[in-house]
Design a protein that fits this description.
Shape: globular
Strand order of the largest sheet: 1-10-9-7-8
Order of helices and strands: EHHEHEHEHEHEHHHEHEHEHEHH
Strand content: 5-15%
Number of helices: 14
Distance between the termini: 58 Å
Largest sheet: 5 strands, mixed
Bound molecules: 5-phosphoarabinonic acid
Length: 419
Amino acid sequence: MPVRYDDEKLCHSFEPIHVEDVEDRTHESLHLLLDREGPGNEFLGWMDLPNQKPDDLKELVDTAEEIKNSGDLLVCVGIGGSYLGAKAVISSLFPHNDRIRYAGHHLSPLELSRLLQELRNKDFYINVISKSGTTTEPGIAFRFLKQLAEEKYGSEVSKRIIATTDASKGALRKLGEQEGYRTFDIPDNVGGRFSVLTPVGLLPILAAGGDLKAILKGAQAGYREATRDDRKNMAFRYARNRKILWKNGKAIEILASFEPQIHYVAEWWKQLFGESEGKDGKGIYPASADFSTDLHSLGQWIQDGTRNIFETFLIIDHYSEDLTVLKDPRDLDGLNYLTGKTLSDINRKAYEGTRQAHEDGGVPISAFYLDHLNEENLFELLVIFEFAIAIYGYTLGVNPFDQPGVEAYKKNMFKLLKG
Ligand code: PA5
């Protein structure tokens, strides 16, 4: 099984209440989603993306191939849903690819200056990604990057800039048309955090070396699983479990992995879940931890702090690279008992030991397992997460597809900036 979800011992550490109500409510929510009758149903285009046809993506594939074969850098300019999907997949699957850069996801003069400095001596493409075309962070970064590209490439600059934006409206669409950039559309009915299977995610991922067939195969497996009208479906169970936990006072979920290479999967998940459920005074706070590193920082709190948390582990079953511990003749550190063991075995035991300790400490636990870390399994998981948060949002009675709260900081910032 490429992706598995183990929730067998979820309620071992506490006696949950309201379980039956939740089961039925989750079932209604699954139907509301599948029948496309819930709040925000004008933003359900993401549900169809796993089933798109590779032939319809030819221009995208060709552009990604051009970038890949050029050997040049690709600078992805975007924030939130316009960068996290690509970053999650690329950093998890192609960690050796040193030709992708990110900008526009912060306002740091240090980071942007460093990038501009680097780009002065390199050839590069820019993929500016913004559905609205007016987001401050990517807008500012793109001004600087565009200016550098214009200085460098002169009349050829339009070959170097690719805009991924709304199909018909917005500032970036207008600029792209005026300047003759290549453009790719973000469908109207897909919100940023659900856009990893649109050109927002796919162009950078394919340019970094992603295999489209494997991506779609995995996404379709996730789709088939999550749309099964069956209470054993992984998206259904995960949504139901979260609702049970929330109703039982568990306000924080920690997505914990034992593989730092998938750190950004958790960052993507935090945005997907946080923006979808955190509204109307409701929702679980999505947090993350990278173990075993964080066992030496957050471990104490998780084991022994306020009991309002639960943990969902994200575990890789089989590794494509491994190391074996060698015998040390002096054995001063006393670690010779590990001689001959692989690092992946030791990591697994660290997971099993941690899981047991946290369970004993009163933390409800469940886990997703990826058979291998590859396109197929990762995209199956991402699609299951997308369906799970949509179903869970409906169980809370919120619209999982809007993000009105994001506007508050912007209003204040604009007021301050305009004096
Ligand atoms: O999920 C979302 O909708 C947001 O995180 C957006 O992706 C983010 O705010 C960037 O917006 P835009 O693509 O319009 O620049």
